[in-house]
Specification:
Length: about 170
């Protein structure tokens, strides 16, 4: 996965790697000597979300979600022991209210700006627990893909709309 940071730098992750590239000089920083990020250089990185001075990092299967602040040089870790539904994190998105959405093997996790984690899974709203991808639309809704369906989550009403085989979504 490759994304461009607000600084113009390119950050990339993959199987057992996380690194940053200067797009003009091609200088690479593998973070191998970084006091905080070196722990992520041997993890499988499956999604990255630039967020101003920060970057959110999704790692799976035995990873979690991480938020590194380049300005403050801090790393926040979010795992099942911190309240996530699973350490198998697949995707990350953010809404207009600065809530961060984390899709995992076992549900949708919403981290509020205050850091409170709300879990939505099969027990309280999802038909299938696995959240494979997330995107925010211009109306502030969160679109989710999982198990042959497309789901629209409206944070304003905390409601779901499902699109599946009955709506023409096929596998």
């Amino acid at each position: 996965i490759t994304k461009q940071l607000a600084t113009g730098m390119i950050i990339a992750g993959g199987e057992d790697c996380l690194f940053m590239l200067h797009p003009e000089t091609y200088q690479v920083d593998s973070f191998s000597a970084h006091p905080l990020l070196k722990q992520l250089t041997r993890k499988r990185i499956v999604d990255l979300m630039p967020d101003g001075d920060k970057v959110w990092i999704a790692s799976s299967p035995a990873g979690g979600a991480y938020c590194y602040n380049f300005r403050d040089k801090t790393l926040k870790t979010f795992k099942a022991t911190d309240g996530l539904s699973s350490d198998r994190v697949y995707c990350i998105a953010k809404d207009f209210h600065n809530n961060v959405y984390i899709g995992t093997y076992d549900g949708l996790n919403i981290i509020s700006p205050s850091g409170k984690i709300k879990v939505i899974n099969k027990n309280n709203g999802l038909r299938h627990p696995r959240v494979e991808n997330l995107v925010t639309d211009k109306m502030g809704r969160i679109w989710i893909t999982n198990f042959n369906s497309l789901i629209c989550y409206d944070p304003a009403s905390a409601s779901f709309s499902y699109f599946d085989e009955r709506n023409g979504v096929s596998n």
